[in-house]
């Protein structure tokens, strides 16, 4: 089993864990036999949940009852000590016992504990939180989503390189377009840091990506840009706005389709189209934010997702390692 990709799983983080995390591991294993799961958490609970659903050659349980709480501040989470399931999972990546780590636990604590354990990739000043967003054509990588409120032009340039490397790891053979999120598409729009970054990217030719200039918030889903770069404040606001809009549309459509007899009949006649629409906006399919810039990859699953969403975050882990993300960043930086 030495050729298997090893994923360190914090089984105790997030809502309804370890039930949802272990059910996610079981679901992921059904479609992927190339992964070995190093599972950190309460051995008794995890053993009962796994039962005989996964062959013993594909997983290992590292027992601990210490857990980072969702209510902890980042510092409180780190102070809970080196025996929490989150810390041990990250430490296993540091010690090269696993290739990548995933947790649905406390985001702030995950970032702090990751920084304490893992080194930065050389020449990168700040790590970024990135994620996949659906668009009209396929998917886009967006970063930063909240790890850095203030960024320099050097940081945004690094994010461009890291984002492009992530995209080519997930989608091999595709040369991505990189765009800077801004308040307008004209070259003179934006603050000084954005304009300075634009000039650098416009003049810097890269074999790994093409620079597409500025992109406005209303064009994020067009699919013309594969990698969208922003500071953490702007990126987080954009993410939360997009999530809220998607939830509003889905909720209002559901009301319209079930609120009257005509709506119910219409929904029955359009059931296949509605199911496609629902699936397209299902956040579980895009679950798995990536903390990028450290010398080992860290994936953050949404704390409120279910086992299907957690399984998808495990799939993101597999694709990142298989795509040699860290090596790509080191080469491109």
State the main characteristics.
333 residues; 12 helices; 17% strand; 2 domains; Isopropylmalate Dehydrogenase; single chain
Quaternary structure: single chain
Task: Quote the average pLDDT.
Answer: 87
CATH superfamily of the largest domain: Isopropylmalate Dehydrogenase
Order of helices and strands: EHEHEHHEHEEHEHEEHHHEEHH
Helix content: 40-55%
**Beginning-to-end CA distance, first to last residue:** 33 Å
Find the structural class using helix and strand composition: alpha/beta
Number of strands: 11
Main β-sheet, in a few words? 11 strands, mixed
Shape: globular
What is the number of domains?
A: 2
Query: In CATH terms, what is the architecture of the largest domain?
Result: 3-Layer(aba) Sandwich
| Radius of gyration (Å) | 20 Å
CATH class of the largest domain: Alpha Beta
Widest sheet, order of strands: 3-2-1-4-11-10-5-6-9-7-8
* Content of β-strand: 15-25%
């Amino acid at each position: 089993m030495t050729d298997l990709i090893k994923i360190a799983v914090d089984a105790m983080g997030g809502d309804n864990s370890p039930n949802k995390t272990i059910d996610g591991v079981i679901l992921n294993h059904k479609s992927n036999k190339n992964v070995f799961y190093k599972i950190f958490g309460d051995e008794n609970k995890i053993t009962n949940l796994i039962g005989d659903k996964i062959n013993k050659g594909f997983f290992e349980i590292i027992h601990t009852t210490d857990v980072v709480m969702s209510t902890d501040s980042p510092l409180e989470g780190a102070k809970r000590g080196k025996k929490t399931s989150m810390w041990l999972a990250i430490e296993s990546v540091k010690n090269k016992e696993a290739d990548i780590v995933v947790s649905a636990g406390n985001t702030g604590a995950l970032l702090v504990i990751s920084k304490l354990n893992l080194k930065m990739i050389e020449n990168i000043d700040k790590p970024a939180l990135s994620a996949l967003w659906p668009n009209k054509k396929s998917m886009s990588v967006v970063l930063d989503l909240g790890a850095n409120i203030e960024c320099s032009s050097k940081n945004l340039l690094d994010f461009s390189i890291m984002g492009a490397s992530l995209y080519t790891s997930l989608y091999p053979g595709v040369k991505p377009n990189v765009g800077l999120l801004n308040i307008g598409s004209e070259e003179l729009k934006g603050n000084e840091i954005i304009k300075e970054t634009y000039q650098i990217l416009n003049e810097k030719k890269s074999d790994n990506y093409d620079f597409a200039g500025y992109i406005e918030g209303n064009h994020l889903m067009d699919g013309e840009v594969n990698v969208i770069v922003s500071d953490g404040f702007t990126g987080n606001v954009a993410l939360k706005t997009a999530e809220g809009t998607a939830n509003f549309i889905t909720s209002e459509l559901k009301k319209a389709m079930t609120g009257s007899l005509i709506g119910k009949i219409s929904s029955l006649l359009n059931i296949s189209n509605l199911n496609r629409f629902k699936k397209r906006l299902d956040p579980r399919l895009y679950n798995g934010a990536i903390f990028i810039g450290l010398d080992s990859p860290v994936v953050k699953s949404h704390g409120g997702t279910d086992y299907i969403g957690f399984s998808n975050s495990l799939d993101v882990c597999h694709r990142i390692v298989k795509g040699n993300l860290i090596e790509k960043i080191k080469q491109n930086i």
